[in-house]
Amino acid sequence: MSLISWARRARTPEPVPVVREIAYLEPADLFDSEIKDDPEASPVLCCTGDPAGAAAFNALWLKRFAASGRYAGAVSVRGQGGTPAAEGGVEARAHDLVQAVVTVPRQAVLIGHREGAAWAALAAGRYPASALVLVSPRQFPKQPPKPVGGPPVLLVVAESESQSKEVQAVADAYGVAPLTFAGSPDDVFKGVAAEGLLDAILSWLAGKH
Amino acid sequence: MQEYSSQAAYDRGEAVCVIGAGASGLIAVKNLRENGFEVDCYERDTVLGGLWNPQNQHSPLYSNTHLVTSRSQTEIPDCPMPDDWPDYPSAAQMLTYLTAYAKHFGLPEHIWYGSEISAIEPVEGSRFEVVVKPAAGNAARRLRYAAVIIATGHHWTPNLPSYPGQDQFKGTILHSSQLKDASRLRGKEVLVVGGGNSGVDIACEAAVNAAGCVHSVRRGTWHLPKYLAGEPADYALNRLGARPRFLRRFLADRLLKGPKRLATRMGIDVPEHGPTGEEPVRNGRYLEHVGDGSIRRRGEIARFDGFDVSFADGTEMRPDLVVLATGYRPKITCVAPKLLGIDGDSPFPKLLARMFSPKHETLAIAGLVEPGVGVLPIVHWQTHAIAHWLQVRKGDPDRAANFRHQVVSESAQYAVEPGGTSPRHQLAVDAEEYLASLGRIIDTLEQEPAK
């Protein structure tokens, strides 16, 4: 985070605080003796533009991340799921994400889906995430902030949108080549497509963090 | 590592040594780790958190210590405090915050507790040999580091005044750091000496607990309440920086008019310069206690005389307890003063840009400033700059040399002017100017990535 953007933020009113809904699953919660908590693996924190918020990740994502030995969390930003609506635009949602991620036990990977990818990118400009994963970003900021601490960035998009201008812009902003997954970008929470997507994310994370 | 005797120095390669595991030390460790350095942090006590930890045997906390700067202006920029905390968190919350910060970024595993640094000696290749003296019995060991960052803070050595007859005084004299509990004030005639934040806070404690409270203050300072215009005062003042330049003066005057009039009514000379020049007193209750007579203000103490204390204006009182809230002196004992540009008896280092040693490129001090705003963000940007500098220096010595010139010219603005009326003046910087200068330093370092 540049000093200037911090100085600007210190001069703007803080978003109204809300009680955020956070869903999390630790490896021990799966009651599977095969699964060991991996102290080296970074925890993950997910968010999505889907109005269900954190609950959307309950079906599959959190279990898959926890099964890989990671602390897996998901947060509903203001107006989603069990978090009350409150004033504030994308900045306030990024604030919710940063507030949630500092309560995770260790330095975490930020994973954002759809609009959530935009919030995660803004949050990564303030919080030194250990990695940043953007899944089918939508309404992404034109000039996303430089991620603090230089984390590795992964961009995963659906095959159908891999040629879209928006995806290209995001890929250029971070200088990464997008990975693609089969299926619809809005329906990533269960089914075969979701399994494939999670495999891709987990194998990428395993190589980095 | 105890097999290393005091003779053989163990070489830690490119690792960096951080001294102190208080707020500044923790931020330094985190920023160095983020830039890929191995770090050994030495803490003389057995706990982290420095002055914020009451278990630290040297902790200067007094009862009911709260932050005097608001949460949003004090939190570390990349790790905010929980947004449901109050505007002015307590010392206990501050410790919770720092502990969570350390844990979140995995810092405790790099801290060696109970290890005091007894000497730092420069050796060839602008490296340092550090002598670590463990608290418990073991022999001192010597280690070599590529760089040393001193983050020991400056609230440890009480600045004690001496008045005529003070030694023969029959009552009790305590420094503010020895007053752990407000119950010591209960039912006593208390004299509080010193008009800084701690003096004013303790006077307020005495106003409600003690039988009577007299507050001896030598000079006028700015008194700000903790809230101005419905917002935390430091935030309200900081926000003016976002306004057009020609309006700032007018808006600042309008904000400060009320507090200034109130202070004048209570017989306090408010200095001509604005409240940003030196740390203002930030306490909303104090002037009300002065107004209802539970704190009586007096001038400087002339002398102690048996049970009595006489003031310069000729009045006398008979206190049971004298609390000297006269602040602290910066004292860095682990390193030879000349490495920090100290000559003569002055305890104040002359640093480049308030952080780099003028003599050695790889020696820096974090957090030795009094910016009049929350100090943690300043330390964050300082250590951010130091970590980047060490990285650039490692990769590209030519660029590092150019950078050095810039730092020297930046620091010309902060030439330490001796002869200030209070020790605090020597460390004071204008937060806005200093941050702008840190910003320029960081920009230069980040322009091209280190090869």
Characterise this structure.
- The complex is a heterodimer of chains A (209) and B (451).
- Chain A has helices at residues 3-10, 61-67, 90-101, 115-124, 165-174, 192-208; strands at 21-25, 44-48, 72-76, 109-113, 131-135, 153-158, 179-181.
- By secondary structure, chain A is an alpha/beta fold.
- Chain A has a 7-stranded mixed sheet, with helices on both faces.
- Chain B has 2 domains: 9-157 and 329-446, FAD/NAD(P)-binding domain (3-Layer(bba) Sandwich); 160-326, 3-Layer(bba) Sandwich (FAD/NAD(P)-binding domain), CATH 3.50.50.
- Chain B is 30% helix and 19% strand.
- Chain B has a 5-stranded parallel sheet, covered by helices on one side. Chain B has a 5-stranded parallel sheet with strand order 10-21-11-12-17, covered by helices on one side. In chain B, strands 1-7-6-5 form a 4-stranded mixed sheet, with no helix packed on it.
- In chain B, strand 18 and strand 19 form a beta hairpin.
- Chain A binds chain B through residues 1-4, 6-8, 10-12, 14-15, 17, 19, 95, 98-99, 102-107, 126-128, 148-149, and chain B through 34, 72-73, 77-80, 82-84, 100, 103-106, 235, 238-239, 241-242, 377, 381, 435, 438-439, 442.
- Chain A: This is Alpha/beta hydrolase.
TL;DR of this structure?
The complex is a heterodimer of chains A (209) and B (451). Chain A is an alpha/beta fold and 209 residues long. Chain A is built from six helices and seven strands.
Low-confidence stretches of chain B: 416-421
Strand order of the largest sheet of chain B: 4-3-2-8-23
Estimate nothing, just give the exact number of structural domains of chain B. 2
Whole-Å distance between the termini of chain B? 34 Å
CATH superfamily of chain A: Alpha/Beta hydrolase fold, catalytic domain
Protein name (chain A): Alpha/beta hydrolase
InterPro entries (chain A): AB_hydrolase_fold (IPR029058)
What are the salient characteristics of this protein?
heterodimer, A: 209 residues, alpha/beta, Rossmann fold, seven-stranded mixed β-sheet, 7 strands, 16% strand, globular, B: 451 residues, FAD/NAD(P)-binding domain, 2 domains, five-stranded parallel β-sheet, 11 helices
